[in-house]
User: Fold this.
Amino acid sequence: MTKVLITGATGFIGGHLASALLQRGNEVKCLVRPTSNSQHLDKIGAQLVEGDVTSPESVRAAVKDVDYVYHLAGAVKALTPSQMWKANSTGTQTVVDACSARTTPPTLLYVSSIAAAGPTSSDQPKRECDPCRPVSRYGRTKRRGEVAAAKVADRLPVTIVRPPIVFGPGDGATLALFRPIRKHGVLTVPGSRKHKYSFIHSDDLVDALIVSAESGRRIAFPDDGTEGFGQGCYFVGYDPPVTYVDFGNVVAQVVGRERVRSVRVYKYLVRFGGRIVDIYAQVRRQPQVFSFDKAKEAVAGSWICSSDLIETECGFQPARSFEERISETADWLFEHGWLRAHRGWEEKCGLEETPA
Assistant:
């Protein structure tokens, strides 16, 4: 039986990954902090190992006897730069050190982000070999994690996956994208309406992570962080990429809105809003998903990537189309009461009351 360890398993993607690996017959261990809500992992039969990616002792114990390590733990929001650096860079370095110290190291699958590669100012998608130009603190810390893993590629089998925008059931960020369209028929567009974005559904991303770990190529040589990777790194996303307005129109169709009104927010207002949210976060001592750091990403250009390499080398293809995944996600949000269902959806599901 294949033994795997997942860090970040209490997160949105990590929970889906744990379920998928258990269904495939793997023995799954999850490194969880004592304060984390791990009820879902316990319920599905994962083995819980208490620890933290910034604790070398707990990580060394967790990776001791596993065949694969899926490293997803990290921070997309933080109150201070040092907190984000600790979670994304120091934490990854700790995992890398623990894995590479083993006599027979496990395969490390590091889940990075398109933010580590940076945006593109044209319609040309980012490819794995392109130089990395992150524009945000988050992107720089994720890139630093990539470099930490690549530096020991001569003694540790490493594969990196860079997802774009991820959506799916059970995700608060996904709800924040769908709710204004369903409730008000309004879509807020940061920066230019011409910017394009790559998306991936959580289930398709999980499939991509597993196939990359099991049959993907490994980084072949140590990397100093100045260029992209020649091999062992994969982007994954639906083709073709879409504008934010295109995305809003697809969502509108499945949530019962005939049309959606897009409201463009100019660059300086997006950045100003990020500053205001940062002040609010400091006052409340609670980091927010939107911040000045995220505002810089939002107005930096297009965030699009090519999935050609993972398709060619791993045979990966999304199980559903972008439009089908949007529809599935909306159905889940309605079924679980995250969005108020509309008449058309109730009729489709046979929930409308039949007159006597």
